[in-house]
Amino acid sequence: MTVSSMASGKPYYLSLSLYRAIWRWHFFAGLLVIPFMLNLAITGSLYLFKDEIDNTVFAYRNVVQPRGESLAPSLLTDNAKAAVPGSKVLRYQSPGTPTQSAKVTVGTPDGNVLVFVDPYSGAVLGKVGEKEEFSWVVKKIHSLEYFGLAFNRIVEAVGGLALVLVITGFYLWWPRKQTGGVVTVRGTPDKRVFWRDLHAVTGAGAGALIFFLAISGMPWSGYWGDKLNTTLSGYGLGYPAQLWDNVPVSKLQTKQVLGNSGWTVENAPVPVSTPGGTPVGLDRIVASAAAAGMTPGFEISLPSGKKGVYTAAVFPDDIAKQRTIHFDQYSANPLVDLKFSDYGAGAKAIEFGIGVHQGQYWGLANQLAMLATCLAIILASVSAVIMWWKRRPSGRLGVPPMPQQKSVFAVFTLVILVFGIAFPLTGFAILGMLILDQLITRIPSPLQRVFS
Fold it and tell me: What is the pLDDT of residues 62-81, one digit of tens each?
């Protein structure tokens, strides 16, 4: 934006001040989130194609040749247990297709191990530590949970700041009588204007999808997402708590017994069995789950203790087929049978968003759309760094100037803080930026020159 592009007089100063305030906040938010956005985009791109990677790079343990009838699940779990001496079977996952292996999770004093078993021969195809399996590692690095709770909270704050970047970026990009940098890129790579336009055009073109990725990823965040889950269920918009009204429950949550519990039911309580007689065994439960119409590829957690239950769950690409059933371990009777159709409106909307976010809903088209968005994030981030590097004065950060009308900056800051209240960890990050900005601009120090 240039002075000549605006009208003269008071409206000009207000418009310029608003532009500077938004530019300054866009700069600060970008400065904080670029490294994390790059991580999210790169790991997200990999996770979109986790099934394809499993079936090619790790085909030796995931892909089998169909031949005859599958062996009993109990035999497969016995073989898996024998492959890891001293282990205990925790979960069994049935093959999703005739060409997929069965997966058995066993527990050891050193952590859980995932064992891949040929369902036709019973041969163990491979084993890997649960926390070393490719998709698990990519997912945990994506959320930074791999490095601990504190880093996971940072990603949650970054998600909210990404929303700020999209909104402020659209304002900065919006055409103001100019044509360059709106849908075309001017100059050559050796010029700053080239990178400025590339950043603006990329961000504007993919902005809506970037906003979608950020907002649809927030439910998985550790703090905000957990609070949202509890709130929706409390208002009848999450999982239907009434299904548990006449069922005795344990202190366990579904996410504590399953490898993949899904977002809606992760905090739902696990029922208890009524002790009596002889446990029916895994084979009976697998048959009951299949007879109930569960989509192949369902996971079953084995009971822990005399009051434990078998929990069968499946979360396929078709979210309408999500289902969780808790079976009494003595009678095989379903204690709770939760289908997608039972979810509240809020949970259905969020599960839809998560499905699209992970590229599960419309097959390859969905995957490619999300991949293109991830690549746009990478391009926008890299171009932002190059643009800033070419613009900044030597030895300085090159922070955009404070607005001439301080009232505009104050009002805009208030709006941003209100937005931050909706996402508390983002709000704390914004508050920290605001305090630092005010301290540096008001208190004389060497940092004033660096931040100029």
Answer: 999 999 999 999 999 999 99
Neighbours of 55 (CB within 10 A): 15
Using CA atoms, how far apart are residues 370 and 373, in angstroms rounded to an integer?
A: 5
Q: pLDDT tens digits, residue range 8-59?
A: 445 555 577 788 888 888 998 998 899 999 999 999 999 999 999 999 999 9
* 203, 380 contact by CB (below 8 A): yes
Q: Are residues 423 and 312 in the same domain?
A: no
User: SS3 sequence, the chain?
Assistant: CCHHHCCCCHHHHHHHHHHHHHHHHHHHHHHHHHHHHHHHHHHHHHHHCHHHHHCCCCHHHHECCCCCCCCCHHHHHHHHHHHCCCCEEEEEECCCCCCECEEEEEEECCEEEEEEECCCCCCEEEEEEHHHCHHHHHHHHHCCHHHCHHHHHHHHHHHHHHHHHHHHHHHHHCCCCCCCCCCCCCCCCCCHHHHHHHHHHHHHHHHHHHHHHHHHHHHHCCCHHHHHHHHHHHCCCCCCHHHHCCCCEEEEEHHHCCCCCCCCCCCCEEECCCCCCCCCCHHHHHHHHHHCCCCCCCEEECCCCCCCEEEEEECCCCHHHCEEEEEECCCCCEEEEEEHHHCCHHHHHHHHHHHHHCCCCCCHHHHHHHHHHHHHHHHHHHHHHHHHHHHCCCCCCCCCCCCCCHHHHHHHHHHHHHHHHHCHHHHHHHHHHHHHHHHHHHCCCHHHHHCC
Domains identified in the chain, total number: 2
154 occurs within a structural domain? yes
297 and 410 inside one domain: no
Q: Say if 61 falls within a structural domain.
A: no
Final residue belonging to a domain, choices 343, 374, 393 = 343
Task: Examine residue 77 and state whether it is found in any structural domain, yes or no.
Answer: no
Whether 155 and 191 share a structural domain = yes
Domain, as residue range, for 419: 3-47+149-219+366-450
Does 385 lie in the same domain as 318? no
Tell whether 58 is covered by a domain: no
Q: Check whether residue 320 and residue 396 sit in a common domain.
A: no
Q: Are residues 404 and 323 in the same domain?
A: no
Q: Are both 327 and 381 inside the same structural domain?
A: no
Distance spanning both ends of the chain, measured CA to CA:
20
- pLDDT of 402 reads 77
